[in-house]
């Protein structure tokens, strides 16, 4: 894959300094040098020690990655929300892990994406997961289609330039404000390597929420994370007495329409680090959310009729 830029600054600079400013790491430069890549300055092959002047055209060729990994490709459904040469965004279903495990080595989203790459005949088939979701969380999941794109997105994430929003159903209607924050540190529970809890010696965690709708049996909320702790949304809402509906790990109520924690990654917004395009990619609400809200509206109507009578 070839990338090109025009150097626009007045002062001169070294090629390696310029490429570093474009997110080309030392390891990627080594790959370019030793694995079949190339660097050009104004159409001529040069090294990273070349000097750039204003108006110079820089081009690099990044070698194909092939499939140097052990992830097995499978032919399973893949709901694609967005794709270009650099990124793939999918709508992850309930029950699919992000990465393979010893117990389920072929059922993860990584396996599905690898199978898709194989069927499409892509030259780059290494799986680069940018944003993971828990097995039972649905919604927007971002993959980079090559290592350079992955590195650029990691920089955006570190700089908090990726805006990700969630939808959740709380099993108790405890929220009274339409907008608020939960600012509470999170750490491991004493007796488990899986569960987390709010504790004074935990890591700082901040969750922002907007109350969407209150129903007889719960509330729907929009959520934005300002930190990325394990199970952060689930732990924070449990800490205020409103675990997510269906979240048996954290004490959420069981519900016939919600057979998992009621958490959905609704949207992902960022400026494409290569094209410069502002993107907002959204995943529709899953069927279990829709069914639960429909049942709640029916229940509200029954309550209203009973009150009127």
Quick overview:
The chain is α+β, with helices and mostly antiparallel strands and 309 residues long. Helix content is 23%, strand content 29%.
Layout of strands and helices, then pairs:
Elements: E1 2-6, E2 13-14, H1 15-21, H2 26-34, E3 38-41, E4 44-45, E5 51-52, E6 57-61, E7 80-83, E8 87-92, H3 109-120, E9 128-129, E10 138-144, H4 147-158, E11 163-170, E12 179-183, E13 186-188, E14 196-198, E15 206-215, E16 218-225, H5 232-239, E17 263-271, E18 278-282, H6 287-308
Domain Pseudouridine synthase RsuA/RluA-like: 86-238
Organism: Trichococcus shcherbakoviae subsp. psychrophilus
EC number: 5.4.99.-
Characterization of this structure:
The protein is an alpha+beta fold and 309 residues long. It has two domains: 2-61, no CATH class; 80-291, Pseudouridine synthase (2-Layer Sandwich). The chain is 23% helix and 29% strand. The protein has helices at 15-21, 26-34, 109-120, 147-158, 232-239, 287-308, and strands at residues 2-6, 13-14, 38-41, 44-45, 51-52, 57-61, 80-83, 87-92, 128-129, 138-144, 163-170, 179-183, 186-188, 196-198, 206-215, 218-225, 263-271, 278-282. Strands 7, 8, 9, 10, 11, 12, 15, 16, 17 and 18 form a ten-stranded mixed β-sheet that branches. A four-stranded antiparallel β-sheet has the order 1-6-3-4, with no helix packed on it. A two-stranded antiparallel ribbon has the order 2-5. The radius of gyration is 23 Å and the shape is elongated.
């Amino acid at each position: 894959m070839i990338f090109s830029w025009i150097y626009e600054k007045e002062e001169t600079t070294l090629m390696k300094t310029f490429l570093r400013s474009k997110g080309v790491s030392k390891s990627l430069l080594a790959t370019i040098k030793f694995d079949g890549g190339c660097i050009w300055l104004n159409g001529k092959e040069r090294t990273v020690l070349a000097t750039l002047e204003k108006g110079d055209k820089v081009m690099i060729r990044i070698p194909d990655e092939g499939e140097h990994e052990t992830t097995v490709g499978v032919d399973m459904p893949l709901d694609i929300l967005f794709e270009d040469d650099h990124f793939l965004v999918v709508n992850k279903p309930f029950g699919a892990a992000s990465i393979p495990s010893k117990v389920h080595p072929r059922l993860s989203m990584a396996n599905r994406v690898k199978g898709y790459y194989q069927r499409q005949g892509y030259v780059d088939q290494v799986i680069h997961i940018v944003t993971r979701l828990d097995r039972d969380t649905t919604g927007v999941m971002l993959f980079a289609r090559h290592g350079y794109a992955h590195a650029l997105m990691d920089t955006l994430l570190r700089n908090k330039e990726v805006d990700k929003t969630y939808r959740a159903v709380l099993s108790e209607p405890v929220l009274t404000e339409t907008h608020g924050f939960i600012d509470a540190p999170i750490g491991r529970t004493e007796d488990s390597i899986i569960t987390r809890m709010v504790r004074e010696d935990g890591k700082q965690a901040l969750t922002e929420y907007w109350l969407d709708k209150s129903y007889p049996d719960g509330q729907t909320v929009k959520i934005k994370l300002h930190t990325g702790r394990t199970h952060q949304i689930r732990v924070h809402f449990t800490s205020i007495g409103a675990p997510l509906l269906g979240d048996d790990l954290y004490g959420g109520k069981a519900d016939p329409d919600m057979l998992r924690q009621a958490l959905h990654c609704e949207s992902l917004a960022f400026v494409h680090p290569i094209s410069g395009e502002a993107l907002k990619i959204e995943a529709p609400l899953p069927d279990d959310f829709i069914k639960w809200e429909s049942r709640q509206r029916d229940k509200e109507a029954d309550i209203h009729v009973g009150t009127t009578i």
